[in-house]
Give the backbone structure.
Amino acid sequence: MTEAARRLEAPAPDAHGDAARRARVHETMTDAMLVRRVLAGDESAFATLVDRHAGVCLRYATRMLGNREDAEDVTQETLLRAFRSLSLYETDRPFRTWLMTILVNRCRSAALLRARREARVVADPAALDAALVPASFALAADEASRLGRALARLDARQREAFLLKHVEQMEYEEIAAATGVNVSALKMRVKRACERLRTLLTEEEG
Amino acid sequence: MTRPVTLAALGALLVSVHTLPLRAQQGAGAPRRLDPAIERTIALLADSADAAGLPGEALRAKAAEGVLKGAADDRILAAVRTFARELREAHRALGAATAGELVAGATALHAGVAPERLRELRQASGGAREGALAVPIVVLVDLVTRRVPPDDAIRSIELLLRRRAGDAELQAFRQTVEQDILSGQSPSAAVAARTRAVLDRLGGGLERPGRPEGFSP
Amino acid sequence: MSRESERIDDVVLARAIDALREPVPVRDAWRASVLAAVRGPAAGTLEHPAPVAARHARRLVLHPLAAIAASLLLAAGGAIVGGLAARASSPAVSPPRALVDRSATIVDGEAAGTATARFVVLAPGAQQVALVGDFNRWDASATPMRPLADGRTWIVELPLQPGRHAYAFLVDGTVAVDPAAPRSAEDDFGRPNSVIVVSAPAS
């Protein structure tokens, strides 16, 4: 290998090294510690928080809203809000719960806005049972398998509880904190969601 | 809970293959203008409509539609005149009505529905909220364009209106009838069957739309 | 399902849950725009607002509250949020003092008596799709639709007055009806149109 090539291959000096080193340090920190670092001025700590939690947020939002584009918008907004109100985060609570609280609310707002808009327009909910995909989920119609369609047909409150419990695998107390719904109501919603989902999925098979 | 449906393009359906080539669009350049005399006449028609409390804007839009679709000037003028006349007739039939109801009514008349039937629809709906007839008439016209015999269509909508079917139900009804027709049923049979189904549901009393458990009837 | 652990005994459900647990990949571009929005010299936090100092902070045209509201506009905001992402390299939003959700006034337009309707159509292979109707005087250039990432779904949102509107899609210069909408009887120019009815805002 020529000297030139070797120089090309060598890692760029310092700047990159600093960032990499910081990232490695961050990896060992808890969420709470990272939050304190952010508040102390270390923005790169927030990048680590994002990397830790964005995937889960995106997954929940995608399943909840039914399409990727909305999910990215809502997740981005959630992370921005989280950033701006970081000082309100109480470090004795799990960061994830706090973040999911914001995310759950953003998803609800997004759906409400969409529904409010579309409620102005004459809707035909019964036609959905003629196996058409609701337009707001039509965006995911291709990527949505039967599963996506079935999920879309759940009542939103049930879908929310179901996703948090069985997909994000949160404890009921955590879900209660994130959704503002009491545990027994949540359990009922999850149960109904499971029943309905099962029915929808086996229906489509038959 | 969620009301996820917009009327336009429900589901991922392909754009219809029945398309109209747009002669006016071929070749770039300035958008086509109408012959000035015709343009003036149309403006007059629209202004008179406005003055009479009718939706003149609908007439201007009709002319613009003709331009976009590449129709000949005199055909456009004829269409606008006809539409203006139909708006007046719809107004006579419906009395106090929103622009949407009037335009819908005009298209119904254009489709061959008699003015008295529009009056009957008004009565059947029982003077509900303002603009309440827009959706029923739109559904009526849609059914007629799909070759449901007008009398069957009108009778059906009347029944549904008397039973206080709402906009959403009427839309759903229309959609299911369309599907039935597309899958081979005769239009009148489809309408009869679906009307019965909706009436049964409405007549049930306990069944209300918009229950919290999702949106299956 | 009586136990706290809520074990899913049902095979169908268990399979479904497995599928739903599949991670959704984080796009690099998206991640970059999130960090850029957070990171801009003007960003700051509630506790540590950025100094008004002499950074070359080029602010976004959007007011920060509008930026949050815009991001709530989802598809409609796609254009706006896309704009945010496109300008990710420049300092993005400055921190609001309070997280006020102003989205309603922007999106609903209830005060103005309009509603926002969304039109979606699948048109694979199309280069250009536009929405035409009486609300934009059938102007082919007034309401272009935009394709989603799949390249086949086209979408647009626009305010509509309550009432009945005739419309159609213009797909690469060809007029096409909306396959899912009611048809009008307006065959004066050879084809019926599609119809949409916008209800008046709920009382």
About this structure: The interface with chain B takes residues 111, 114-115, 118-119, 121-130, 132-138, 141-142, 152-158, 192, 196 of chain A (CB under 8 Å). The CA atoms of residues 146 and 205 of chain A lie 9 Å apart. Chain A has a mean pLDDT of 77.
